[in-house]
Protein 1
Amino acid sequence: MYRDKSIGVVIPAYNEEKLIVRVIETLPDYVDQIIVIDDASTDDTVKIVKSCQKHAPNDKIILIMHDVNQGVGGAISDGYKWCRDHKIDIVVVMAGDAQMDPKDLPSLLDPIVEDKTDYAKGNRLFYGNAWNIIPKVRYLGNAALSLLTKIASGYWHVADSQCGYTATSLKVLETIDLDTIYRRYGMPNDLLVKLNIYNFRVKDIPVTPIYNIGEISGIKIERIIFTLFFLLVKLFIWRMKEKYVIRDFHPLIFFYFLAFLLLSISIPLTVKLFAFWIQYGHIPRINSLALMFSLIMGFQSLFFAMLFDMENNKELK
């Protein structure tokens, strides 16, 4: 128990035989349940976790095994379901590769215990030396995805969207349909969008970035960034429909639609402008005026829509 709240830690694990013991053994004593989800590992992860179970008191370590790899989102979803069904007050997610410092746990738990937030999320980019610790490709890819996630999710104050070190209240797990959570690496982005639709409060918590301790990452940010880009576009459209059309209509829909229309029109106008310039050596005046109008009005509508969205979600910090 932590401040009279039961605590569960969900650990998604895929081929984590090197560091899974370190993760389990360094967890504080106030953690009531440790739920390890083995996502069809091909190494000795299961064997090692079962060995840890023998030395843990009162079935503290729960092992859930997948016959088929379901991705990190699928593993976390199953861990969430177990905690929801067993009425765990606060559920923390920590990776099985020891990249999440247990010393940061109180910082994630306290805002939920004090009812200041519903979902606390780690932010590794807060510290000034994060640039020197996190691999450069992952840092830049993370920064780009975080910017897109701000737009897609409506949580404009949230950074480091891909950080999986989180703490969640039981109320969140009982509200969201856990079966619909995205199964792969885009799970944190998908969950943030779902949280916003239900108007849950989300708080960024600075956490220590840990790298080069023997972890092996299967994530290639340069390969998945385009997949996540299209996922975020889909999530953005879905959030607009669910939150601002179906649940409570908001005029920002018109501004986003107008921005999309005008900026789309500017593409063929730009192509036509350069075609005339190359072919005839000059630019038609009406073409340049139309392009300027569509760009200026398009971006102005876009920024107004973002401002409305930001204002509408300012209480969810």
Protein 2
Amino acid sequence: MRFHILTIFPHILDSYFNESLFRRALQKKLLEIKVHNLRDFSEDRHKKVDASPYGGGPGMVMQAEPISNAVRAIKSKVKGQRSKVRIVLFSTRGKKLDELMAQRLAKYDELILICGRYEGVDERVAEHIADEEVSIGDYVLSGGELPAAVLTEAVARKLPGFLGKHESLEEVKGSYPVYTRPEILTMGRKKSIVPKVLTTGDHKKIAAWRQKKGR
């Protein structure tokens, strides 16, 4: 599976994607992450990708042309490969990213993720280029790069081999309190003790406790 991230800051996520699970997955070629500098697709001699908004107002708006050029270039390379492609624009007006969306997007071969900046993106990108708009929460960020990283990880977790074991998926094993050594830990003036059931070795009781405490 390939993730294409369109941004004006092509190195902003380098450290995140080159550590931990992503580093291993990339080395094993379980997935590919290609970051595209939108300025490379600008037809302006100064490589500008923004302009002032029609109707006035503060800030600048990202232009549709560089984004359209980038998407067209990416799609031309995968054309004829029977690849399923989905184009996502990150927007505060988009549908909330959740587990069902991550599962759905994991079925595609290529995800093209458009990261906005400034005061927003020319609305024609949402109308004519993107397949859907996505938000990662009810708050505003300065750009789409962090949402792109969040969506990429949420989807990548669904790919075989990314986590090593299918059972490692929290959506498979569930979410419940976990503890490790030492069994007794002094926290300030109080002692915190691991729940006794977890130290019994009785797997049925442990499973029942986890189910009760899970969420």
